[in-house]
Amino acid sequence: MPSPSPSPSPFPTPSPPRRRARHAARPDTPTAPSVPPAPQAAPAAGRSLRAELRGAHLGTEITASFVVFLVALPLCIGIAVASGAPAELGIVSGIVGGLVVGLMRGSTLQVSGPAAGLAALVAQAVTEHGLAMLGIIVLVTGLLQIALALIRLGRMFQAISVAVVQGMLAGIGLPLMIGQAYVVADAKAPGTPVENLLGLPGLVAATFGDSDALVAAALGTVTVVLGFVWKKVPHPAGRAPAALVAVVLGMGVAALPGVDINTLQVGDLLGSVHLPGSAELAGLADPAVLTTIVTFTVIASAESLFTAAAVDRMHTGPRTRYNTELFSQGVGNTVCGVLGALPVTAVVARSSSNVQAGARTRLSRTLHGLWLLAFALLLPGLLALVPITVLAGVLVHSGWKLFAPEQFRLLWRQDRGEAVVMGVTTLAIFGTALLEGVLIGLAAATLLAVLRMSRTTLRQTTDGHTATLAITGSATFVRLPQLLEALEALGALVEAGAPRIRIDLRALTHLDHACRTQIDEFVAQQRTSGTVRVEVLPPNTTGAAPVAGFDAYTREGDGFAWFADTRR
């Protein structure tokens, strides 16, 4: 008995594409012979420092370096104190950011140093693993950054959702503000960001009950206010950095008789350097240390490269070469790790000051490291006069700029889905930890992208004796419940007496295997009944590029291709 021929599939193989003519038609008018383009000059970001200085104004570069130095000095000290490290280690990192990273290529005008965005992370590492382990953590972080740059993954960080990055910065800034509020009042923060937040009412009550704490809080509050209003002061006084003005003012108040507020405890700059030894190397076997290293690498690299993108928008000079910049940051962190100092990243405050001061070359950022070194060697005693509350006020202002609440409002008006991702990332970091919060934010961004890429519209209509289901958009497994519900409704119309079914896929842009299987099974089921006429209208594939998700099945030989079938 001959085997029955298989029933024709509703989706036979489409006709092969027409071959392109071997010789294209010649134009009516002759064309000039093609000439290979002349090689373009290398971007300025990749030139030597001597080449950059040609045509640059040396006086402007030196002036800009002093401006960056005045901005960087209080930030280096304050970030070190907030990180639970000696103040001199912050200066060491600032020197490395200037003299090492500043000399290297990548981003011409970007300035590196210890960053407020890493203060909480460094403080956590110092608390959990000790200050001695900080050097080896930063050292391996730098080596990982170099490795990422060598395999050219610098631009990978640009693929991260901007909402996640903004949420990460906000999640760093919010705990920084709350934690430094205790330092402003010469008090000690309870612990986690949530505990610090819940303890604020008690902090306020304790501050008003202690005259010395009240003086410290007033001085710190003035520092925060100066950070917001000093830029409105007319020149020439307004040219001075607000943080430096606050430090000078605080030193004057601390010197007044009867004022008892905490000031910096400064040690020897060279004595603060701690070279990693065998004990620290053995600590790399601890999984918690390895997790901290990965967190440092991701956050420091992302902050540096996103800062580079922000600085590129501030000027019309050479653009950043991201892999080269990541390599430079890795070298800087490797040196910081060898010295036992804080990690360095690119910093917006210093970089924007560099651009606004008129810098055009790497000389300005390199010289600012030289000025930091000279100050630490020649005038270390001045640091002991700086009130800690002033440095905390500087960091509260930095935390507010990281938190940037106006970004939430702006993003909510532009894209509420992205605003939700930003909020989820911020709250996750605040409630858990930096790495866990970023991972949660990335998961939220991925879910949002999947939902948006799988937007599907299913419209069901009845015209005479024909029940039509039109599917538009991208049909993926995420929308499978909607598709099944629509097919069930279509089947109910058949049971009610509709003799003809039309499934219109002409506006479909993508169909994954899950949805395609359900449509195939539905069509086969209806045809098996023998009482209904099924018509499938294929997607529009007349363009140069085929619609995603349709040709693969035909090539696999499963007989599942799209066409219009009018047979019973």
UniProtKB/TrEMBL annotation:
GO terms for cellular component: membrane. It is a multi-pass membrane protein. The keyword Cytoplasm does not apply. It comes from the Bacteria. The keyword Transmembrane applies. InterPro entries: SLC26A/SulP_dom (IPR011547), SLC26A/SulP_fam (IPR001902). GO terms for biological process: transmembrane transport. Residues 1-16 have a biased composition (Pro residues). Its main location: membrane. It comes from Streptomyces ficellus. This is SulP family inorganic anion transporter. Residues 1-46 are annotated as: Disordered. The chain crosses the membrane at residues 62-82, 89-111, 131-151, 163-183, 203-230, 242-259, 288-311, 370-400, 420-451. Keywords: Membrane, Transmembrane, Transmembrane helix. It is found in: Membrane. Residues 61-424 form the SLC26A/SulP transporter domain.
